[in-house]
């Protein structure tokens, strides 16, 4: 009688010290665990070898991306239940070492090794980026990292992002379900334009311009001249075509260029939307200083950036292994306080900070729904592994925003001249955005 699931569940519970929160189905078809919960499907013994040879987050990710491990039922519920176990036990090497000091945990590991079969570490899935010892953030490594993430294919991004082609947090009205993703993304772009107080004839630099959505909106709706820079060849080609189709080639220029190489300032305003996460802690002051130098006195910067929760011991912070290996190589998140401090060190006067954490959770759930509704086409355009990476990354990220593990903030900063006249209104947040 098949019993792999029962044996596996007992060993995992013995290792973790808690009952499994989801049902388990093993490669022999057997099941064990609480009924009525999502089913964690362990399709083969190789999944166990992946977990044993790389315990924690990366091993789980490798098993998921390769298809050795999957979930039947609601993915959000499964991730929420499983992440509770990970967060409580600790994901890092110290947490694992503490667990394995218990004799019963060591016995469980021996049992899992026996179930896993040949003790050979499986090769990582092809979608995994080779790990580097440090985040250098040179022009070459940044370009390689951006290419890994954004040069997946414009057709794939169209499936996920929808017609707006905006790959950052949308700005939702309340109640959220009444708005479309496209309306919420348009409201976000308009919000940024109003915060920057854009006027006809001004020059805007859009750093990390993506597929050109912000540049097009600012030029079409506010009459500004825009330079957008990206390191992605595919994004630039797509953006240039959109600009031409809109008849805005006299107003908008899309460049494949590192922000550190932009030398045609000064600009009246700069937008940086979902780009600063790629800069890295070691380079952040350089990033802020470069943008400060590119602005006219009185010019404004809108920095839209994901932030993490601060830790009591910041020296213990580590980059998310799954994100670093499969999604954003060399990406780094900083607490909002650190971001504000670095902008001020560069010379900016920070005038407004708006936290829009819940908005990103709504946005990600819409993107996941788009991916799932077009799953077969997404697999055809990329690969089964790449599609699985995106489904896991976006669903897990939605939960992280909902649980306040990470947030997203819009920071409005001014290059205030020596006169002290910032040009800001006496009452902040006068930039209300009407919803269509």
UniProtKB/TrEMBL annotation:
Protein name as it appears in the record: Class I SAM-dependent methyltransferase
Disordered: annotated segments: 120-141
Basic residues composition-biased segments: 132-141
Protein's UniProt keywords contain Lipid metabolism: yes
Cited Pfam families: CMAS
GO biological process: lipid biosynthetic process; methylation
Top-rank taxon, per record: Bacteria
Gene3D superfamilies per UniProt: Vaccinia Virus protein VP39
GO MF annotations, alphabetized: methyltransferase activity
Keywords: Lipid metabolism, Methyltransferase, S-adenosyl-L-methionine, Transferase
Family to which this protein belongs: Belongs to the CFA/CMAS family.
InterPro entries: CFA/CMAS, CMAS, MeTfrase_dom, SAM-dependent_MTases_sf
Domain Polyketide synthase-like methyltransferase: 156-397
């Amino acid at each position: 009688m098949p019993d792999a699931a029962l044996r596996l569940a007992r060993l995992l519970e013995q290792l973790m010290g808690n009952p499994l929160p989801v049902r388990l189905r093993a490669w022999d078809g057997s099941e064990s665990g609480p009924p009525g919960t999502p089913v964690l499907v362990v399709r083969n013994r190789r999944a166990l070898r992946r977990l044993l040879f790389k315990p924690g987050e990366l091993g789980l990710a490798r098993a998921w991306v390769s298809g050795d491990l999957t979930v039947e039922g609601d993915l959000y519920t499964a991730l929420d239940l499983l992440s509770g176990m990970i967060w409580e036990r600790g994901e890092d090497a110290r947490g694992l070492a503490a667990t394995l000091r218990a004799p019963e945990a060591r016995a469980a590991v021996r049992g899992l090794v026996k179930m896993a079969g040949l003790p050979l570490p499986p090769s990582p899935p092809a979608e995994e980026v080779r790990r580097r010892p440090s985040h250098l953030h040179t022009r070459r490594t940044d370009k390689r990292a951006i290419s890994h993430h954004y040069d997946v294919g414009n057709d794939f991004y169209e499936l996920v992002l929808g017609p707006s082609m905006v790959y950052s947090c949308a700005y939702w009205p309340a109640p959220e379900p009444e708005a479309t993703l496209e309306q919420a993304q348009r409201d976000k772009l308009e919000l940024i334009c109003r915060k920057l107080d854009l006027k006809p004839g001004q020059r805007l630099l859009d750093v990390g311009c993506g597929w050109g959505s912000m540049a097009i909106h600012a030029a079409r709706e506010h009459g500004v001249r825009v330079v957008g820079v990206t390191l992605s060849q595919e994004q630039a080609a797509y953006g240039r075509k959109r600009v031409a189709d809109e008849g805005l080639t006299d107003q908008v220029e899309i460049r494949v260029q590192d922000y550190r190489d932009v030398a045609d300032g000064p600009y009246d305003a700069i937008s940086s939307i979902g780009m600063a996460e790629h800069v890295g802690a070691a380079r952040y002051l350089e990033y802020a200083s470069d943008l400060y130098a590119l602005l006219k006195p009185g010019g404004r910067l809108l920095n839209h950036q994901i932030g993490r929760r601060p830790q009591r011991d910041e020296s213990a912070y580590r980059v998310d292994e799954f994100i670093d290996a499969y999604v954003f190589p060399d990406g780094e998140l900083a607490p909002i306080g650190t971001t504000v401090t670095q902008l001020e060190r560069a010379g900016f006067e920070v005038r407004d900070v708006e936290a829009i954490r819940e908005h990103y959770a709504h946005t990600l759930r819409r993107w996941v729904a788009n991916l799932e509704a077009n799953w077969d086409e997404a697999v055809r355009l990329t690969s089964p592994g790449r599609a699985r990476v995106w489904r896991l990354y976006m669903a897990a990220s939605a939960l992280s925003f909902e649980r306040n593990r990470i947030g997203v903030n819009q920071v409005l900063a001014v290059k205030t001249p020596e006169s002290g006249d910032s040009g800001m209104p006496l009452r902040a947040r006068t930039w209300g955005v009407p919803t269509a």
